[in-house]
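Section 3.1: Structural characterization of target chains.
Under the original work plan, the team committed to producing a structural model for every single-chain target entering the pipeline before any wet-lab resources were allocated. The record below documents one such target. The sequence was received from the expression subgroup and is listed exactly as submitted; it comprises 257 residues.
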Amino acid sequence: DARAAALQERIKSCNMTPQFLAGPAYRPQPVVNAAFIRRCTHSAPGEQAPKLVLIGDSFAEASAEHVPLAASELGYDFKLINGYGCPFPLDFENIKGSPWKLCPFADRDLLADELAAGLAPGDLVVLRLDFPKTGYVDYPLGGLPPLDAYDQELLRFHAKVAARGANLLIMGANPTLPPDALESAQGQWFQLPGDATFDAADTPQAQYFLAQERHLRAALADRPGLHVFPTGEELCDPRGRCALRDDAKLLYFDLEH
C-alpha cells in the first residue's frame, strides 16, 4: 500500500552507503552532511508527537520494517538513518581492539551531534549494531574481543542523547551462524531441514554476541534513560542453543542476518 511504499522510499533515501548495494538497489554514495542527517532524523515542521529514531548498520536496516510498527503502537513518529561498513554513529578510534581508526563514509561527530540536536524530551533513539562484526573488533587467536570494547563510545553517545532529555535503547544483532548451518537448515528436495537450533559455541562471533550482551546489561544497568534489549535471551536458551528456524520458517537469510 501507499504507507509501505513510503516507508521503503524513506529507508532507501536515508541509507548513507547505498553504493554497496547490488543491482537496481545500487545508488552512488550521497553526501552525508548536516542537511542529510536532519532530513532523516529530525521532526518535520508541524510534527508534534515524540519520535523514535533508529540508527545503526545493516542490522538497523533489517529492523526498519518492524520498528515502525512498535513506534506507531507507542505513539512515536518514526525516523531512521543507517549505513554499512561502520558502527554508526560510534567512533572506531575509541572501540577497544578495533582494527580501524576512521569511518570513511560519514563524520561520526557530525552524525551524532546533528541527530542529538533534533531530539526533544521523551524521544527515543534505538541503536542497533552488529557488535561482534569482524572489522569492528579483532579476534585474537583463540580468544574474543574485550567485552567492554564499545562501552566508552556507547556512554559518549548516550550522554549526547540524555542531554536532550531523550532515551537510548541499545539492540545487538543476532548470533552468527556456522558456515554450514544455513544450508543444513534449508534442507534439499531429498532431505528434511536440519536442526531448529545451533550452538553459539560454534562461532566466536556468536560467543561474543552473548557474552558482550550480558556484559552491557550489567555494566549499563544503573544508567537512567539507557536500556539494553536482550536480543540474546530472545534468540538463545541458557545453554547457548540459538534459534535457527521457527517451526518450518527459517529465521536467517544469510550467515549474519
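The beta strands are 51-56, 77-82, 124-128, 167-171, 197-199, 226-229, 241-243, 245-246, 249-250.
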